Amino acid sequence: MKATIRTKLITIFSTLNVEDFNEVISLVKEARDRMGQITINTLAVGDAVSFNGRKFGVLKGHIIKINKTTAIVRLDSNTLGFGYQTWRVGASILKKI
Description:
By secondary structure, the protein is an alpha+beta fold. The chain has helices at about 5-15, 20-40, and strands at about 50-55, 55-65, 70-75, 85-90, 95. The protein has a five-stranded antiparallel β-sheet with strand order 4-3-2-1-5. The two termini are about 25 Å apart.
């Protein structure tokens, strides 16, 4: 995020009450859902993807199933040292590679 946008947001947030924050949170969730839907519509089973695993950094794999808002990703060859793994990943964090 650009510093100018961040500064503007901080200024705006300083004037909000709890109800306003809840409305902002709802808007952010809706935007994330739209982004995820756009992403999920561009993916297909077999596509190579990457995503940022919380504790494991960037992980790579292939899609084995697509759901409404998530995809099931099989990690590439023993990525984490635990054998093949499948992860259910939100579409908004998947990147096609």
